[in-house]
Structure formats: structure tokens, C-alpha cells
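Why does residue order matter? Because the sequence determines the fold. Keep that principle in mind as you read this record.
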Amino acid sequence: MTGPRLPQWFRFGPWVFSIDAARALIAASPRDTRPLDVPAWAAAYGLAHLDNPNPWATSLIGPTSTALNRTYAMTTDLSQPLIVAQISVNGAPPGPLLIDGTHRLYRAWREHAPRLPAYVLTVQETRQIQDTVLLGPPGTSAVPPSNP
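Structure:
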């Protein structure tokens, strides 16, 4: 018997995002998925380095070689859309950040799938799913507060 499902979080540096809140937001505001370019994202996330025996080969943005469960990844459902947040720091143009689906991305890359479906959040939606308690005091979040 398994216990209750634990909340899902994505952590990237000082930023923490609630995957459960992102899914609830998407359910409340349905949208079409967008195609995510698997080879490009896999390269950006350094997936080719995961199996590299060179201990100095690393990725600055993706998972480490010990952080990604490859066995689990190969069982994931590639039809389930990934979730991409939009991060804007200090008013800079927003940049995408994959917050849900790294295992699916790995499987798609290993199986040479060209694209995966992805939900893309807006900057404002991304701010809504940030956990400010885990991020620290006000004013330290990845997305600056909007003007009243």
C-alpha cells in the first residue's frame, strides 16, 4: 500500500516551482500544447553528457548523471505534455525553463523522437506557481512583482 502522493516541486538554483499548482492552473485555463524540439532541448540540458565516463563533462542547466533515474525515464508517458515556465529577471525578456518533464525529455531523446507536447506558462503564471516561502523574503523571487 502506498501513502498519499507527495507534492511535486521543481528546484533550480534559488527558484522553487510547484508542479501541482502549475497543473491546476493549466486545468483552470486550458490551452493548446506547443511542440518542444527534443534534440535542441536535450542538447541544452546536457543529456548527452549523462552517460559520458569523463567526470569533468557536466551540464550547467540539466540534471547530473546521478540525479536522473534512467530506468524510470524509459517508462514515462511521452503523450503527457511537459511544462515550460517563462522566467524574467529584472525586466529582461522572458526565457523558457523546463520545470516538468525532464525524464520524458530524456526518453524522447534516447528514442530519437523529434518533438514532445508542452504547455507553456506565461511570466505571470510562472510567478503564481513560485513558492515564496521557499524562495525567501519578498523581492528575492525570480520574477519581479508587477506594479499595482
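Strands lie at 9-12, 15-18, 34-37, 82-87, 95-100, 115-120.
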